[in-house]
Amino acid sequence: MPPAETLTPERILEVTEDVLRRYGPAKATVVDVARALGVSHGSVYRHFRTKTALREAVTQRWLDRASKQLQAIVAEDGPAPERLSRWVRTLFTAKQHKAGDDPELFATYMTLVGESGGVVEQHVADLTGQLAAIILDGIEQGAFAPGDSATLARAVFDATGRFHDPCYAAEWSRPGIEEALGAVVGLVLRGLRS
User: Fold this and answer.
1) Count of other CB atoms within 10 angstroms of residue 1
2) How far apart are CA 87 and CA 26, in angstroms?
3) What's residue 2's pLDDT?
4) Whole-prediction pTM value?
5) Which of 80, 18, 8 is nearest to 44 (CA)?
6) How many angstroms separate the CA atoms of 145 and 43, rounded?
């Protein structure tokens, strides 16, 4: 039976996400993905050479969703302190929604992220690069003290880890978390202005 839609990598990734949600990472197979697409597993392998490559691509796609939203903040004009604050808060909100709106899929992705070290390292490099761009803008605007923007970006990323590192996901729905985030963001901004 021919597939209803053209088989593209993006379509395979969409269906893989559904299969992972349904079966979980331990039980989901490439055959399950192919069956859901109405194609042979060989057709899936033509786009993704291994099961690992497919899982890494799904993980990358998931992580890239937040990166794209944040990149829009980086590209904006305006005061760097406000953009940095909004960037950190937007990252937190995105992670909070991922964990709270679909906890089963979030747990699945945490398993996949654990298997995809290179994908995660690239994601962190992308995020810290975005922060560095905002910080550099702030230095050029005179809003932040001079310094190495890459080093400062990593420090900001680490300082705000409680609000984006998945190991803290259980805390993200607790009362007072927004206030705690505001306090950390305020502290970071004061530090950058020194």
Assistant:
1) 5
2) 34
3) 46
4) 0.83
5) 8
6) 54
For residues 135 and 144, give the distance between their C-alpha atoms in angstroms, rounded to a whole number. Answer: 7
Q: Can you tell me the distance from the alpha carbon of 21 to that of 148, in angstroms, rounded to the nearest whole number? A: 42
- Residue 3: the pLDDT is 45
Task: Profile the chain (194 residues) by mean pLDDT over runs of 10 residues.
Answer: 71 92 87 94 93 86 86 96 98 89 74 74 94 98 98 98 92 96 98 92
Question: Cα(52)–Cα(112) distance, rounded to whole angstroms?
Answer: 10
| Residue 185 in tokens | 């963001």
Query: What is the spatial distance between Cα 12 and Cα 25, in angstroms, rounded to a whole number?
Result: 16
For 18, counting Cβ atoms within 10 Å of its Cβ (0-12 exposed, 13-18 middle, 19+ buried), the class is middle
3-state secondary structure (DSSP) of residue 79: coil
Backbone angles phi, psi at 77, to 5 degrees: -85, 165
- 155 within 8 A of 105, measured Cβ to Cβ: no
Per-residue pLDDT, 102: 73
